[in-house]
Amino acid sequence: MFPKPLLAIIGRILATLSTVLILVGAAGIVAGTLGPWATFRVFHNIEINLPGIIFLGGGLCLSVAALVFLGARRSPLLCLAGALAVLFWSGEAQKRVPERVKFQLAGSQLVLASTVNRLLDQFHIPDIEVANFGTKNSELLGEGLDWTLKGANVLLLGSLVGLPVDPLAVWIFRRTARVRCCFCGVKWLLSRSARFCPSCGESTLPSSWRLCPGCGTKAKKKDQHCVSCGTAIVSES
Ligand SMILES: [Zn+2]
Ligand SMILES: [Zn+2]
User: Fold this and answer.
1) d(CA 113, CA 116)
2) Strand 36-42 to strand 46-51: parallel, antiparallel, or no bridges (unpaired)?
3) Listed residue (226, 27, 194, 108) closest to 218, CA to CA
4) Do 79 and 19 share a structural domain?
5) How much distance in Å is there from the Cα of 36 to the middle of ligand 2?
6) Which domain holds residue 232?
7) Which ligand lies nearest to the CA atom of residue 227 in the structure?
8) Of the four listed, 48, 137, 181, 221, which is most buried by Cβ atoms within 10 Å?
9) What ligand has the least distance to the C-alpha of 184?
10) Centroid of ligand 2 to alpha carbon of 58 (angstroms)
11) pTM for the complete prediction?
12) Which numbered ligand comes closest to the C-alpha of 182?
């Protein structure tokens, strides 16, 4: 195992890296939801951009980013849940947003058809088309949705990096992770770091390891003396 100070340094590096990634990811989600999720042309030359926040999914993603900034960034476990939710909502938006846009455009086309276009017909002027309904769904998606997805991926990465040092995750791990004895099948908490099975007394160490009779330090099979206290270790074979 690593010495304790090294573990602490690794932990601090992981925590810092995780915090940076989580903040960058959340910032990406904010920029993404304020950016265009839908972009389309009406009357052939007017471009309309609809920001993500006017859609339900966009609003939900923005709230996740807000929660991260408000304090959820301290728990990578919470950030992980948030990142998965944003990935789900923005994935849904890729399907739903184009449908919504086309539905709205079709509505406007109906209104035009019944009023303006009927009037234009009287003067033999071609009908006004609100938009090209043949546009592919993917072409209606704005780049804001892309940023939201990228932000969510960075947030996901940040929370995974920080998970091993998350106090909440560690607390849950210490109270749930169990070891199973391969001799009698009894299970106990990993946090007890038991060297012998509490039920049958068999050693929990790999067969190539033995314990020093003097201080209990792990010794390798070929060792003749303990690396910690120097006690002679009698070979079994
Ligand atoms: Zn056992
Ligand atoms: Zn020893």
Assistant:
1) 6
2) antiparallel
3) 226
4) yes
5) 66
6) 194-237
7) 2
8) 181
9) 1
10) 61
11) 0.67
12) 1
